[in-house]
Design a protein that fits this description.
It is a single chain. Helix 2 crosses helix 3 and helix 3 packs antiparallel against helix 4. It is built from 4 helices and no strands. Helices cover 64% and strands 0% of the residues. With 139 residues, the chain is an all-alpha fold. The protein starts with a helix and ends with a helix.
């Protein structure tokens, strides 16, 4: 039960941060978007995109709670199992990265985002992936 609950707490926190940003919060936003070597943002998400991410991450957290039967969602069990496998894949791909701005194999490594990504974001994504994988296959 520790693996899905750990993911739930982490995903709820990440979702909450995205909701905070969507509704005008600025804390941490300067370190959340990858930049090139000149400091130009690689993305410029609007409120709608940020809300989609926030709700998507919230749904991931809810699937983990449903897996350990702490929440009853009106979905078939196979959706939860495949959903957790997809979540594991998403976070594994994020940890590996795009080979340019994000992930363990990024080329641009000397920006504020890149430093935080190497130390925290990519390892966290790998942890989320492993936990979701364990939750999908062994619980």
């Amino acid at each position: 039960m520790i693996f899905p609950l750990t993911n739930t707490l982490i995903l709820l926190a990440i979702s909450g941060i995205h909701f905070f940003w969507a509704f005008g919060g600025c804390w941490g936003a300067d370190a959340a978007i990858p930049t090139n070597k000149d400091g130009k943002k690689a993305l410029n998400p609007d409120i709608f995109a940020t809300l989609i991410v926030a709700f998507g991450i919230l749904a991931m957290a809810l699937l983990h709670l449903e897996k350990v039967q702490m929440l009853s969602l009106p979905i078939p069990a196979w959706i939860n199992t495949y959903g957790l496998k997809i979540i594991a894949g998403i976070f594994l791909l994020r940890a590996i990265g795009d080979f340019r701005y994000v992930g363990f194999f990024k080329k641009i490594k000397n920006t504020k985002f890149a430093n935080l990504d190497t130390k925290y974001y990519s390892p966290l994504c790998l942890l989320l992936s492993i936990n979701a994988f364990i939750s999908a296959f062994y619980l």
